[in-house]
Amino acid sequence: MTVERAGSRLWPTIWPRIWPQFSPQVSPRLWPRLALLGGLGAAALVLGAVSSFAASHAFMLNVSPSLPYWAIWLEPGRPAKRGDILVFLPPRSALLTAHFGVRERPFAKYAVGLPGDEVTRQGRRFFVNGHEVALAKPATKRGEALALGPTGTLPAGCYFAATPHPDGFDSRYGEIGWICAPRILGSGRPIL
């Protein structure tokens, strides 16, 4: 088999020899147009898949130092498992407004306590099923007092969210408390 130089005449020369039963009688000048149409069709399929993914996911930037990730994919409606990133809207309070502004912003923390887990406290240390998960500070960096979060059995649809960061603002504090279904936006997956 002889192969002509690369370019628009390559496929018309090779095609009939590879698959003679499917050999189309196409003029060599039509091949670039067919390749363009095939490329456009493939691009349409890729864009459709990306669009479907984008409809059920969101890209979020984390500007807080409480998690080591700065980029997170949010999957709305996916239940969190232990250790997953839980994305939620915190309850409004004067303390949150003073530190984060009036506009409601989502928080991202680890789901360390799941529905049915037992949350206990010894002093300012919080435990989930007997394992220490957080230490609460008595006051903010600005000196505002921080009330301790709730303890007990986590009800259905509620989570204890925390981070290992010492300044993390999460379920160990009364202003956040347990994170329950109406405030949960979904589970996140770290990207970067």
List the topology elements.
Elements: H1 10-18, H2 31-56, E1 58-61, E2 71-75, E3 85-88, H3 94-100, E4 107-113, E5 118-122, E6 125-128, E7 131-135, E8 152-153, E9 158-162, E10 179-180, E11 184-190
Antiparallel strand pairs: 1-2, 2-11, 3-4, 3-11, 4-9, 5-6, 5-8, 6-7, 9-10
Oligomeric grouping of the chains: single chain
Describe the strand arrangement of the main beta sheet, using strand numbers.
1-2-11-3-4-9-10
Can you give the helix content as a percent range?
10-25%
Name the beta content range: 25-35%
**What is the strand tally?**
11
Task: Provide the succession of SSEs.
Answer: HHEEEHEEEEEEEE
Overall 3D shape: elongated
Nearest-integer average pLDDT: 85
Largest sheet: 7 strands, antiparallel
The number of helical runs is 3
Low-confidence runs (pLDDT<50, min 5 residues)?
Answer: none
Provide the structure class.
Answer: alpha+beta
Overall radius of gyration: 28 Å
Query: Between the first and last Cα atoms, what is the distance in angstroms?
Result: 51 Å
